[in-house]
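ARCHIVE CARD
CATEGORY: sequence design from structure
SOURCE FIELD: tokenized fold
FIELD CONTENT:
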């Protein structure tokens, strides 16, 4: 999720309720913790020694579940990305207690006050995490990136690596990174633009205190280092997807773009924020003009991210090309095995295929079962995220009951009018008639229901 920071703990009671409502596990069963304690003592035996190569990680400063480390070198005009991914499968056996619990969870769930990890901390934030200092087992992908940003998987191997530096987005300096890091990211992002990708990466929301018990939602701007780092993961996932699709196996991430009705609603949302969306411009083209430093543009980007049909997982099917519309490519998830169950199996398949070995039967069987498990985890995560946003909106509006707000109707259906406030990143519904999509209206905040994390507005009708 896009994290909502809560330094003043204004959301604390509401977050506790969300954890209860969505049965977010507070910890791990004792038998799973015991199995993890035993697993971390497992010494790597199938890994080559790559500790002489300088790998680094780049993450939020507070992160301890480090999935990815990287090194970069030149090969003629190409750049070679050595992307090391935490080798979770080395510690987790099919059907063991850790594995069974991971299948029950599907993914790490994130809330502003902490996460519910996919694996016990001793594993997910300890022995399997690519933390600096001690050698760590990893699956290392060597991805060849040409001058136009095209990617090709050169090799996949199990290796022991050493993270030389735990770098943070907000403090990293160019000198801390491999010399070709910026150029590599630029190549990958350039190729993304040329193929028409439309990823939406809105800023993260934060709850800011205004004093006297009042709060507002603000946006923390994404840093260049975040986008550059994301490009490395993207390149690897694209290369892995091509490898598995050609081999006739795998699990792929697919997503449709917003449909025509969703685009119409987004146009009305843009109007609510006084954003100029030319009639002839597509959503993709319009998004590329937005400045995320503008709070209204940032709020629109959040709305656009929620407007898609939702991403899902599909196994390989002969004769079908799995497609991820925002990426404008065939795409797989392979680079976050500490946080997503599916990645552990995609990694195992890529390791086998790249080295001319058959994909293990347990992996092939998992590709059939995983879509339902991951869909459930995504659904829970999406509901938690929506509940957190609703809670943040509620906190922001507390004390403003009776106040009137300018709004725009973004949609009309049997449940009433969907509105977007003009001056706040708040979407809601109003029971009213005689208003069409795109029309302006004024609404009054009538009530706040903290228990349901809901706000109620009514239309303000001016006297004739």
């Amino acid at each position: 999720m896009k994290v909502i920071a809560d330094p003043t703990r204004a959301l604390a009671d509401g977050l506790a309720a969300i954890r209860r409502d969505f049965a977010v596990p507070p910890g791990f069963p004792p038998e799973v913790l015991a199995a993890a304690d035993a697993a971390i003592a497992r010494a790597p035996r199938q890994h080559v020694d790559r500790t002489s190569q300088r790998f680094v990680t780049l993450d939020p400063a507070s992160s301890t579940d480090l999935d990815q480390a990287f090194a970069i070198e030149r090969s003629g005009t190409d750049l070679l990305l050595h992307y090391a991914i935490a080798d979770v499968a080395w510690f987790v056996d099919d059907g063991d207690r850790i594995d069974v619990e991971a299948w029950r969870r599907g993914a790490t769930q994130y809330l502003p006050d902490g996460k519910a990890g996919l694996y016990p901390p001793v594993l997910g934030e300890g022995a399997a995490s690519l933390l600096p200092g001690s050698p760590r087992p990893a699956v290392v992908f060597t991805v060849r990136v040409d001058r136009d940003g095209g990617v090709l998987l050169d090799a996949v191997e199990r290796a022991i690596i050493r993270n030389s530096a735990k770098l943070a987005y907000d403090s990293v300096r160019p000198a801390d990174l491999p010399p070709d890091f910026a150029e590599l990211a630029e190549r990958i992002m350039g190729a993304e633009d040329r193929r028409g990708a439309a990823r939406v990466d809105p800023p993260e929301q934060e709850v800011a205190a205004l004093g006297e018990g009042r709060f507002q939602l603000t946006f923390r701007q994404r840093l260049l280092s975040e986008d550059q780092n994301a490009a490395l993961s993207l390149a690897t996932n694209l290369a892995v997807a091509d490898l598995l699709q050609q081999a006739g196996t795998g699990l792929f991430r697919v997503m449709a773009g917003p449909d025509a009705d969703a685009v119409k609603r987004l146009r009305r949302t843009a109007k609510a924020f006084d954003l100029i969306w030319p009639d002839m411009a597509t959503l993709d083209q319009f998004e590329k003009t937005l400045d995320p430093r503008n709070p209204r543009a940032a709020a629109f980007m959040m709305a656009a991210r929620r407007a898609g049909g939702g991403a899902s997982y599909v196994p390989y099917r002969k004769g079908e090309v799995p497609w991820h519309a925002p990426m404008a490519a065939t795409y797989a998830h392979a680079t976050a095995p500490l946080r997503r169950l599916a990645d552990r199996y995609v990694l195992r398949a890529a390791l086998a295929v790249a080295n001319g070995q058959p994909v293990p039967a347990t992996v092939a069987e998992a590709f059939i079962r995983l879509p339902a498990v991951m869909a459930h985890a995504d659904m829970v995560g999406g509901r938690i995220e929506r509940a957190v946003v609703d809670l943040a909106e509620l906190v922001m509006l507390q004390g403003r009951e009776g106040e009137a707000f300018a709004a725009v109707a973004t949609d009309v259906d049997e449940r009433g009018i969907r509105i977007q406030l003009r001056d706040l990143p708040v979407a809601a519904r109003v029971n009213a008639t005689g208003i069409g999509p795109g029309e302006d209206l004024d609404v009054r905040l009538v009530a706040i229901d903290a228990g349901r994390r809901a706000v109620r507005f009514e239309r303000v009708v001016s006297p004739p």
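CARD ANNOTATION: Residues 12-256+310-370 form one domain. The chain is about 35% helix and 25% strand.
SHELF: design records, drawer C
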